[in-house]
Amino acid sequence: AADRMTGIGTGYDLYPTTFSPEGRLFQIEYAGKAADTSGTAIGIKVSDGVVLGVEKLVRSKMLVKGSDKRIFTVAPHAGIALTGLLADGRQIVNTCREEAQRYKKFYGQPIPGKMLNQRISNFIQYFTLHDSVRPFGTSVIIAACDKTGPTLHMVEPSGISYGYYAVAIGQGKQVAKTELENLNFEELTAREAVIEIAKIIYKIHDDVKDKDFELELSWVCAESNNKHQRVPEDLLAQANEAGKASREADQFGSDEEMEI
Question: Contacts for 208-215 with beta carbons within 8 Å, 24 or more apart?
Answer without folding.
Answer: 210/39, 210/57, 211/57, 211/58, 212/57, 212/58, 212/61, 213/39, 213/55, 213/56, 213/57, 213/58, 214/56, 214/58, 214/65, 214/66, 215/53, 215/54, 215/55, 215/56, 215/239, 215/240, 215/243
